[in-house]
Design a protein that fits this description.
The chain is 56% helix and 0% strand. It contains five helices and no strands. The longest helix has 35 residues.
Length: 140
């Protein structure tokens, strides 16, 4: 039989509000933190010391395995978080030269258009003044 005292104890043991996180985020470890944990794990000599270290830091043994493999391969840069996403496409060594040639071509086209407009100008003036233009070799 439960008494009012027992009910009061049970109610006090249950928290009133529980915070629920909407979405968990991926943990990211800095290179220095990884190196520090590896140094501490390497210094552990007593049985159960590594397990205590992992529990204290909230890590899994797979973290240690992955980080040790990266260290052994000499991937000091591998201990930093890797950039995510697709790898950047390598630059074409001729791309700069092609761009310069395209700019030069557009400049020359603009120059040719101006020259053509200058050639057409006397024809338009003659048409406005209604005077015939002399042909090649003829005198006006």
């Amino acid at each position: 039989m439960t008494t009012q005292h027992d009910v009061a104890i049970l109610r006090s043991a249950v928290p009133e509000e529980v915070e629920v996180v909407a979405k968990a985020s991926r943990r990211r470890f800095t290179a220095e933190y990884k190196r520090q944990i590896l140094r501490e794990a390497d210094a552990c000599t007593e049985p159960g010391a590594i397990g205590a270290l992992l529990r204290r830091e909230g890590l899994y043994s797979s973290h240690l395995t992955t980080w040790r493999a990266q260290r052994e391969r000499g991937e000091l840069a591998g201990l930093t978080p890797k950039k995510r996403g697709p790898a950047p496409k390598p630059q074409n060594p001729l791309a700069g030269k092609v761009a310069a040639l395209e700019r030069a071509l557009s400049r020359e086209k603009a120059r040719a258009d101006r020259a053509e407009a200058l050639v057409d100008l006397p024809k338009k003036v003659a048409a406005l003044l209604e005077t015939p233009l002399p042909r090649n070799g003829e005198k006006p």
